[in-house]
Amino acid sequence: MPIIRETQTVRLSQKEFGALAFEVMAHVHDIHNEFGRFFDERVYKRELADRMTGVELELPVTVAHQTFSKTYQLDVLVRKSGLFEFKAAESMVSRHRSQALNYLLLFDLPHGKIINVRPERVTSEFVNCHQRLEDLRDPEVIDSAFDSKVSGADFFRDMLMALVRDWGAGLEVGLFDEALTHFLGGEERVWVPVPVMGKKGHLHDQRLRLIAPDVAFKLTAFTEGLDGFEAHSRKLLQHTTLKAIHWANITHQRVTFATIRG
Is this prediction's pTM over 0.70? Predict the structure, then answer.
C-alpha cells in the first residue's frame, strides 16, 4: 500500500464541515482568550482535545514506494471528518496552504481549516480539495523539451513517473524530491557543492542536487511563471560548471519534463 494510515475518515459536505468548524472555532477562541497568544501550537490543540469530544491529535500517515517511506503527522482530526492544522506564525503563507492540501489528499478529505494562534486575535482560513489521489495517478506527460541523451535523464523521468502513478500528482513536491534523493543514494551522495564563478573567478560553492557529476535536477509545482524559472536556471548554469538541469514541473493534471542548458 503506497498510503498507509490507521484512521478511516468520513467525507463531509461543505455545509457539514462549516458547522463542525464553527464548533471547533468557538473552543479555539475561548482557549486563546484564556491562554493568550505566546504559547506553542501544541498547547492550543491539546487543550482543544480536553474540551471537545472526538478530537484526535498528531495522527500518522506514511507514504511508501519500494524502499522509501516518509511519515507525516496530521495536527488535528475531529470526529474522523474535520481536518485542522494549527500554526503559531506571524501570518499564514502559501506553504501552510500547501501543507493542508497535502493532508487533505492523504486523509481523503475534501475540507479543512488552518488556524493561526499567534496573532492578537485568532485567524483562520478554509482549505478545500475536491480531488482525490486515486484520480491524480495518470496525469498528462509532456516531454518534448526533455533530452534523454543527457546523463540521468531516463532514471529521472522513469522514477518520478513511477512515484506519481503510485501516489498521485497532487502531493507536495518536497516528497518527490526526498524520494528521488533516496533512490539516487541519499543526501550525502546527491547534495553536492558546485563551484559558482564570477568575473574574477571562483566565488563560492553552492550545494545543489545532482543526478550525474555535471547534471542537476529540480522539481517544481508551478501553475505559472515557468518561463521565468527556466531563464534563471540558464543563468545558474552560466555561472557554474554544470552542463544541464533536468526539470519536472508537477501539477494535478500534468507533469512537464524539460532539460535546461546554459
Answer: yes
